């Protein structure tokens, strides 16, 4: 009994974590700060402009651009969960984050990440209705339905993801507190936990399958039907126009899902910590930065709206 009490006294529970981030690159801290600050400003300006033009331009008052404006707002929120904190760590050369702040960051990262997956699925459904059922499009995708789809995308995963975050942070963290990552995330946190983590790892993978793979399969099914319909169109110009309205969305889906799946669906020993950091940064910073470029450079309506908005 005495030995058990002594053992309990010797256990120290983690009250804060240290995000190692780019501490292995001390000479590049200034360069990385400048680079990520530039990326963050590009995300804010680019996505901000998309939000403005989809709200004020009369030619962009369609469901497709309504979803795009919401997606751009979501991108700003999503990156604001990680980049400002990362910039502060690079500036101060300190990576300490409290237990509660780490839990809050993880929770918001998952809620917004899942909302992004679901919204990409909604945008694919919108393209499916527009191309495969054009006569019914105004009826099916009326404003009320569009608002309901946005609300569902934002809130449907919230209770489950709060519970998921609670389970992760209910694990015993009694050993080292150094996270070899740039932000708080489940894989590096689970690696630090003491005791058996098998159940929570399964739980994380099940949540990923439900909220990440399900929308992806819906996107896949939508695009199989879209491509089949496009190939049946008699005119070449009709086919190219239909493809052009989908290509931007497909590129964003490819970037986001490609990098995200490598991080969350990889085998436990599949990649080094360095490569996981790179892919995590890719889907949390690079993809949101490219989103406005992809949609503006490949869309004549968006280019025309930007020309009207911006001074010559």
List key phrases describing it.
312 residues; mainly alpha; globular
Short recap of the structure:
By secondary structure, this protein is mainly α. It contains 12 helices and 3 strands, in the order H-E-H-H-E-H-H-H-H-E-H-H-H-H-H.
Number of strands: 3
Q: Give the termini separation.
A: 80 Å
> Could you give a short account of the major beta sheet?
3 strands, mixed
Q: Output the strand order for the largest sheet.
A: 2-1-3
Plain-language structure description:
The protein is mainly alpha-helical and 312 residues long. The protein has 12 helices and 3 strands; from the N terminus they run H-E-H-H-E-H-H-H-H-E-H-H-H-H-H. The chain has a 3-stranded mixed sheet. Helix 3 (63-92) packs antiparallel against helix 4.
Q: How are the SSEs ordered, and which strands pair?
A:
Layout: H1 2-10, E1 16-19, H2 29-56, H3 63-92, E2 96-98, H4 99-132, H5 137-140, H6 143-155, H7 158-169, E3 178-179, H8 186-192, H9 198-232, H10 236-264, H11 273-297, H12 300-309
Parallel strand pairs: 1-3
Antiparallel strand pairs: 1-2
Helix pairs in contact: 2-3, 2-11, 2-12, 3-4, 3-11, 4-6, 4-7, 4-9, 4-10, 7-9, 9-10, 10-11
């Amino acid at each position: 009994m005495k030995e058990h009490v002594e053992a309990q006294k010797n256990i120290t529970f983690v009250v804060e974590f240290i995000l190692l981030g780019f501490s292995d690159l001390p000479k590049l801290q200034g360069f990385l700060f400048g680079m990520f600050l530039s990326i963050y400003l590009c995300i804010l300006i680019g996505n901000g402009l998309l939000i403005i033009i989809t709200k004020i331009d009369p030619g962009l008052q369609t469901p497709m651009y309504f979803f795009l404006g919401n997606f751009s707002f979501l991108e700003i929120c999503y990156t604001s969960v990680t980049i400002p904190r990362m910039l502060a760590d690079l500036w101060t050369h300190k990576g300490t984050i409290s237990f509660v702040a780490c839990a809050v960051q993880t929770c918001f990262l998952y809620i917004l990440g899942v909302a992004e997956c679901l919204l990409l699925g909604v945008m694919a459904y919108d393209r499916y209705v527009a191309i495969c059922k054009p006569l019914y499009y105004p009826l099916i995708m009326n404003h009320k339905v569009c608002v309901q789809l946005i609300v569902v995308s934002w809130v449907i995963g919230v209770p489950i993801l709060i519970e998921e975050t609670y389970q992760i942070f209910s694990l015993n963290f009694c050993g080292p507190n150094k996270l070899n990552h740039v932000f708080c995330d489940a894989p590096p946190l689970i690696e630090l936990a003491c005791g058996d983590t098998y159940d929570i790892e399964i739980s994380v993978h099940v949540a990923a399958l439900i909220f990440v793979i399900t929308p992806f399969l819906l996107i896949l099914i939508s695009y199989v039907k879209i491509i089949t319909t496009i190939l049946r169109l008699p005119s070449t110009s009709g086919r190219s126009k239909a493809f052009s309205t989908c290509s931007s969305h497909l590129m964003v889906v490819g970037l986001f899902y490609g990098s995200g799946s490598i991080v969350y669906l990889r085998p436990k020993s599949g990649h080094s910590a360095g490569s996981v950091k790179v892919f995590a940064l890719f889907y949390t910073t690079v993809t949101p930065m490219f989103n406005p470029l992809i949609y503006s450079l490949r869309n004549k309506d968006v280019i025309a709206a930007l020309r009207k908005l911006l001074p010559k």
